[in-house]
Write a structure and sequence with these properties.
It is a single chain. The protein is mainly alpha-helical and 95 residues long. It is built from 4 helices and no strands. The chain has helices spanning 3-27, 37-59, 65-89, 91-94. The radius of gyration is 14 Å and the shape is elongated. The N and C termini lie far apart (38 Å). The mean pLDDT is 87.
Amino acid sequence: MDNTVKITSVHVVAALIAGYLSSLFTLGQIPGLGANDVLAAAIGLGILYLVGQLCDNLFGKQEGFSKWLMSGVVPFAFIWFVFWTILINYSGILY
């Protein structure tokens, strides 16, 4: 399997986790912290950075900026924002 597919798959799984954690922070489900959108966004960006470093260590550095952007950042951002939004809008059903 190509490294691009592996990197994208890792980023998609991490984005689902980041979306879930971000929704918990946005809705104030973490005791003592309250609802905090800024912290939720920081959590997602932190996870993106950590997953990027993990993929660099596991699969080697990407050759160019566009390959790094299209195989890691774009799939992560899209899945993260969409999943975060879905969980916030349907919070009455899920939490």
